[in-house]
Amino acid sequence: MKVVIIGAQWGDEGKGKIVDYLAEDAKYVVRYSGGPNAGHTIVVDGKQFALHQVPSGILYPEKKVFLGAGMVIDPEALFNELAMLKENGINWEGRVFISDRAHLILPKYRSMDKERDASRKRPIGTTGRGIGIAYSEKSHRDGLRLADLDWKEKIADLDAEDLDYLNKYRDQLLSMRVDLTSKMWEYRKDNILFEGAQGAMLDIDSGTYPYVSSGASCAAGAATGCGIGPHDLDHILGVFKAYETRVGNGPMPTEFNETSEGELCQYVRDTGREYGVTTGRARRCGYLDLVALRYACRVNSLDSLVLTHLDIYDEMDQIEACVAYDINGKIVTDFPANVDELNAAKPVLQKFQGWKASLKECRSYKKLPKNARAYVEFIEDYTGTPVGIISVGYERDETFVRKNPWKK
Ligand code: IMO
Ligand code: MG
């Protein structure tokens, strides 16, 4: 079985935790897009790990993990991350492999990324990790892939600084090199988990362009980013939070108003620990946006949803979620492409009764308070997609499954 996990919002949905949770039943974990812009947090036995490029299956001692062709890889940051894992007792040697078609980020891309964003009339608020530069070099057909480290003419064209830098990592990078398509074929009878980064709304094609990242964070990216075809993807899961967050700039129709909803915003931000893993920035917070979520379900053919952070609402009397946009007096339920329309959109909110109980110990759907189930079932009806997994805390085991994605 091949199971794909994507973010169904603007990133930071809890993908890392869910990949780590589902990785127990996978033999291999493959990350298919993005690079060091991602920040995937995993908490095991009270110990927190923040992963940026290494797939979230690494914490299991026996799993092999792969960095896919759809990724842009910063070698320096990668080896720092691996050193951090080693210091924390995670032996990664012999378990981490990189697609020979993955692109590399050079140090100068980071400053180019920051300068370019600062010079934009409407900055995107990138993570400054060189992501957009690496993907545009790739599209220009001037990028540098892992396999190219063995292409003599290409290497001869590099300037001295880049060459010195790459020489530091060359042997180690090449020792991790694999032909991912042939590996995926070799492992075709095994369980493989595909880990997305960012989210559907940050995808270069389907997201809120130009306020997006540069990779293919949608489900289709799992195929191209791992050297397989879309027929091979058996189950596609979209992870979403019980509310909405976004980092950086760009439209967010359900964002809390910092003045009139300031208290609610701060409550959600603090209770949900909504501060960036990669940049430390306070995340923008808002009501769950069901218009955007249903769009994400459709654009990714999601088989099921994973709901995280439901426990953030434990103490609230009432919960609200956005079921339509009011755009200059017009009620809209299809997610618009136009930035002016998205910026003008006012959320039409539906109210739900709170459950006023802790969900932390809850390990089955039956045990969820009635009002929490009503919230979940409304989301399922609205999106036409079942909620198969629910997370009620940060720890690996604070999770329960209604529909196991590994079973057909
Ligand atoms: P994970 O995988 C949230 C956002 C940045 C910025 C925009 C473009 O942890 O969910 P980039 O540096 O990629 O060119 O920035 O995309 N962004 C993310 N936001 N989670 C992420 O990853 C993100 N990766 C990029 O904040 O607005
Ligand atoms: Mg993140």
CATH architecture of the largest domain: 3-Layer(aba) Sandwich
Q: Mind telling me the CATH superfamily name of the largest domain?
A: Adenylosuccinate Synthetase, subunit A, domain 1
Please give the alpha-carbon distance between the first and last residues: 8 Å
The proportion of residues forming helix, as a percent range, comes to 25-40%
Major sheet: order of its strands?
9-7-5-2-10-1-11-15-19-20
Any ligands, ions or cofactors bound here, and which?
6-O-phosphoryl inosine monophosphate, magnesium ion
Could you explain how this protein is built, in words?
This protein is an alpha/beta fold and 408 residues long. The protein folds into 2 domains: 2-107 and 131-236, Adenylosuccinate Synthetase, Chain A, domain 1; 240-401, Adenylosuccinate Synthetase, Chain A, domain 3 (Alpha-Beta Complex). It has helices at 15-22, 75-87, 107-119, 131-140, 152-157, 160-175, 180-186, 220-224, 262-271, 290-299, 339-344, 370-383; strands at 2-7, 28-31, 40-44, 47-51, 64-67, 72-73, 96-99, 103-104, 177-178, 192-195, 235-241, 244-246, 284-286, 288-289, 304-308, 318-327, 330-332, 346-353, 387-391, 399-401. The strands form 5 sheets. Strands 9-7-5-2-10-1-11-15-19-20 form a 10-stranded mixed sheet, with helices on both faces. Helix 3 packs across helix 4. The longest helix has 16 residues, at 160-175. The chain is globular, with a radius of gyration of 21 Å. It binds 6-O-phosphoryl inosine monophosphate (IMO) and magnesium ion (MG).
